[in-house]
Amino acid sequence: MKQSISKPPETFSPHSFGNKLSRLLWGFVYVLAFRWTPRCMHGWRNFLLRLFGAKIHRTSRVYPKARVWLPGNLIMGPYACLGDDSNCYNVATITIGGWATVSQFAYLCGATHDSESVAFTLIPKPITIGERAWIAADVYVAPGVTIGAGTVVGARSSVFKDLPPWQICIGSPARPIRARGVSAEDYQESADSPRSDS
Asked: Is the pTM of this model over 0.85?
């Protein structure tokens, strides 16, 4: 008696032809004109990212070894930073607020899969990193997470839920351990104070 073999579920890519074509072209540009550039050439890399749809401020800093899955889903505020070897898997929009830093080897994961689906259907979810936040080295940020303004996430932490603003957070899962000693008002006061060399 022959044993029946179940047919694997048919799967279809959720990505449009335009999405695939854009990522293909971006892959070539990334290898040929982005990754090898000197670290100081932020303006050139910003130009290339904007060419593929990124909405990034002219002062944003994306370092040459940073990986961006789809530039059209990247938003960066003034002086926002994506460090070398960080990975921005932005299947959904990833927003990095002004003066926020994403350090080396951090992984921003903008999609998950439906574990109850036989096809493990892709579920894109946006990530938002607030102004003046710092995502330290090797941090994992899960799909759909919002990290509050001014929050520091310690190295090698894993963030699965939203984090409040102006906190120090560590661990896996990351949790606030204490409030930061500064706030948005401190930055404003610093900006309003006269420069010492003036």
From this structure: yes
